[in-house]
Every structure is written in structure tokens, then in C-alpha cells.
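In response to reviewer comment 3 from the previous cycle, which asked for concrete evidence that the modeling workflow produces usable outputs, we include below a single protein chain processed end to end. The sequence was submitted unchanged, and the resulting C-alpha cells are shown without manual editing.
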Amino acid sequence: MPDIAGLLLDATRRLKEAGIEGPRQDAVLLLSEAAGLSPDRVRLQPETALAPDIAARFEALMQRRLAREPVSQILGRREFWGLDFHVTRDVLDPRPDSETLVAGALAAISDRGAAWRIVDFGTGSGCLLLSLLHELPNATGLGVDASPAALEIARGNAEQLGLASRVDFRQGDWGTGLEGPFDILISNPPYIESAVVPELAPEVARHEPRLALDGGADGLDAYRRLVPHMARLAAPGAFAALEIGLGQDAAVSALLAGAGFAGIVVLPDLAGVGRVVTGRKSR
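The workflow returned the following C-alpha cells.
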């Protein structure tokens, strides 16, 4: 019977040859799924023999990964902010860089026990909104998305995390038809330039929703539409946070400032790149 060490060695080699980043980590996650073992056990007990049916299941998962399907979609889940989120190709894959927005919002909140009202535009899987609600026990939230399929994923995640009683989800076009005010306004809108989307990694270009990626010719279309809604819906002193793409910090900062937000700050991601623009609505 094959053992863990042999399967991982071969899988890592094949993934690396296919040009996939982080091949060892992907192999560990896929083998742990196929074998019903924790990733730590897969890493720490390489001598463990596995039955042929497990090896066959692993090979089926490997074929999907070699076709550049994201690991999160193969597994159907992704960890974000220490929480597990169900994901499909109907939503963006929650990424560690987006945790910058959650951290920035929490750092700006004076009282985590207050009954904050949060709105998340383009909520997708709900990872941003639900992570904040997890940390703010008396807050309530509204997640807005144009995609009915994405909203179903977000509702399921809210149920799974025990947060459904404090959150509502609504299909909509950014802030159109919404009434405020809200104390915390957040979004990770589409910000990739249209011409660049087909050139993204296959995991993104072929497997994530274009609606959540394509930001128009210069990548800023969504911000131009969204920021006026944020200004209209913001309570006096409300905190706003927007995830941005590389080099978009000046343009998005100007949009927020022009809409009446002050104290504009750009927060860096894990690589030191400006990733989130924040501000407060002038009183």
C-alpha cells in the first residue's frame, strides 16, 4: 500500500511541474481531504500506509488541481480570520490580504460591545461582514450582492457560524434603494482592469466570478458608483473601508475625500502593499 510520504513526494513534483505555487501545501491539503486526516497528521506521520481507495480519491482531487481548479473550491471551504467559510465558483476565494480590512475596521472601533450597524457591499461569501460580526457581539449587519448564488453562500456561512440572527442579506446594485444610516461601511469591490482579467492566473480567470473581478477599463468603475452611496448611507462619524488593487490608493482616497470622508488612511497588506483605504464621514 502507498504511504503518505510517497504520495506527497509524487504529488508535489507534479504540481510544481505544472507551475502551481505552493505545491507541497496543496498536496498536503488534498491528501488530508482524501484520507480524512488532519493536515498536521499528514505532515507529521509520513510513514502511514494508506488504502488504495484513498490513493484513488487523492488522484481524483489531484487531477482537478492540475486543471488549475483552486484548492478552496475542491475542498469547498476556505479559512479566513480563523473561521471556515464555504466557497464555490460563485464567490471570490477569501484571501489573507483581505484580512487587512477586518483588522483595520476593528482597530478603528472604540467599543466592541456597542450595537454597531454594518453594511458590506458586494458581500460574496460574507467573509468580511461575518468576521466583523464574530468579533462584535452586539453588532448587526447587512450584506448586499448582485448575485443570488453568492447570497445563498453568504446565508449558509452565517448559519454555519451562528450569526444568522444578526445579519440580513439582500440582492441589490450597490447602495441603490438602501436606507441608512450605518456606522461601518465596507467593501471589496471588483478592481481588476477589464483587459487584465483574462491574463490572471487560471485559478482566478477561469474559476472565480468575473462580476467580482472586473472593475472596468481602469479598475475604478465600482468605486465611482459605490462611494456616493456610502456617503449617503453613512452616519455622522461612520467608518468606511474599501479594499483596493495595486496603485489605486490615491484615486480611491480622492473619491472618499470628495464624498465627505476625512482622515483618509491607506493600510498595507502582508506584503506591505497599500490594500485598504479607510476614512470617517465628516460630522
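The chain has a mean pLDDT of 96. We consider this sufficient to address the reviewer's concern, and the full set will be provided in the supplementary archive.
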